[in-house]
Write a structure and sequence with these properties.
This protein has ten helices and four strands. The chain has helices at residues 2-19, 21-57, 71-82, 95-105, 110-114, 136-147, 159-201, 203-211, 216-257, 271-296, and strands spanning 60-65, 87-93, 124-129, 152-157.
Amino acid sequence: MIFRQLWYLIKNAGNNLWTFRGRNLISVLIIGFSFLVIGIFLALSNNLTYLGERLSNNLAISFFLEKNLKDEELEFIKSQILASELVEEVTYVSSEDAWNRFAANFPELKDILDNLNSNPFPPSYEVRLTDKILSLSAIVYFMENIKSLKGVIDFQFNQEWVEKMDSLSRIVRAIGFFFGGILILASFFIISNVVRLNVLARKNEIEILRLVGATNTYIRIPFLVEGFVLGLLGSLISLIILFIMIKVFPIFVGSSLGAAKDFFSLRPLTIEQSIWLIVGGVVIGILGSITSISRFLRI
């Protein structure tokens, strides 16, 4: 008996969704667009977080050297670097190696390199630090000491980029939730009004159900199911579109961004993020239905 009633309520909700499919479709699309905005910003944030982690996992310092240093001078600088407990590995990069790396990483700038009369890249020592870093101040002190050595002209450290990536990731995520929140609020009111119209369209049916003794819960359930389905479909559509964008974006846009494509790539959402988007869509759909029922369904 219970299963028969449950099946009737679900079937009734399905019939209502199909009968009023025009306005329900609009609701689904708006929900989908709202969560798509959040998904896009989350995908950008994921990419920036990934870049920051990659930099962090390859924490390194490059000490740029004067050209034409003697072998004993190079060895002395290397020995001073290895004397620090912060250092795990030291690699010498010649000017030619630096040229080849730049050409491989930025092929779109190859013509500029070919027009140069000399190699602008200085030789360097690439220093990979240990995982057990005491503090950023200790690293700065180490870098300043090495820079003071004869033959060392400058250094580059990617910690600043790690911090910038992390900050930028948080900003992008916050912007996504801000704009997505506004659109979700609009979705909430649209679902509420759609359910309200469905209630008004079924006014006579509801009166009949009340006369035959139907409980308030029995009458409300189909509308709640409708809100659940609208929210679920909207969030699923947003994930499908986002998946397509992640696959298509690098093909049609990524090549035109050149060296900046790594920063603006879309990285797939985590399973946890996807679940939260789906749950968010369902919650918005149900809350919209509950609000409409409480305001316009006088039972």
